[in-house]
Amino acid sequence: ATPTSIMVGTGRGADMGVLFRQGSALQALQQANGVIFDKTGTLTKGEPELDQWLTVDADDKQSLRLAASLEQRSEHPTAEALVDFAKQEHPLSEVDKFEALSGLGVIGQVEGHDVLVGSKTLMKEHDIGLQKSPDGVDKWIENGLTPIYVAIDGQLTAAFCVSDPIRDSAKALIQSLHQRGLKTAMVTGDAESTAKRIAEQVGIDKVVAEVKPDGKVDAVQQLQQQWGKVVFVGDGINDAPALATADVGFAIGTGTDVAIESANVVLMSDNLNVVQQAFALSKVTMRNIS
Ligand code: ADP
Ligand code: MG
């Protein structure tokens, strides 16, 4: 590989919105056998809206206020959807204690109550029984929507679901990657049923769901053993370790700073087709070299 052709290649990449932070990433792409995608914010737009809010107790007025108050401190798109929804009806409260649990949810204290908002996995970890889930949650799961649970003082009190549209460019990208002979997979912290539904819609056949950040790393390592060299595409804090583990890490440019810092390549376009163009560019660049 001559330094000049790499420089020309990375320059062309920049023109189309693909920033190669190291020239070596352009070379490495040529050897990749598979591409692994995060779901939320990567294959989907990452701009969820709250679809439905359900409480266990019909008279419950406080769960929404407490949950949304806590989520004011979170940067997660789901949190934003809840806050937007709640704000229309309730003034929100100060947060006394807050911790974000990457890929799981948030935990803290509001108005003297212990508040927990997040995934099924998060509830399990805190021994919150989901048997009393509001009527309707099962339907969400069947339909591929993600339930987010709310527990106050150790009891499940409410659940909500958000919908996050798939990026228009996702399906065509997966098709063109398959045409290039690349394998594809999705690795997500989201619920299995939701993940499978989205994977089906975009044409990805391998899904690893309900994993935390280190679970994403495990999945990347396993796929490296099965496939060889892999690219990981992600946007979130919970993707950073996986981006660093993959042979080439692609971060969505509008994603979190930690993801961008852990990646070799940054995508400045919201059209996912640039991923495919990056492979094409790598091929052309390497061909010019040999
Ligand atoms: P992905 O791996 O697909 O990008 P996320 O990082 O968005 O998934 O997180 C996985 C799951 O963790 C979400 O589907 C949601 O259930 C839960 N979660 C993470 N952060 C929050 C939050 N601030 N509020 C509620 N749920 C959250
Ligand atoms: Mg994400």
TrEMBL record:
It comes from the Bacteria. Signal peptide: none annotated. It is found in: Cell membrane. Belongs to the cation transport ATPase (P-type) (TC 3.A.3) family. Type IB subfamily. This is P-type Cu(+) transporter. It comes from Idiomarina seosinensis. The lineage of its organism: Bacteria, Pseudomonadati, Pseudomonadota, Gammaproteobacteria, Alteromonadales.
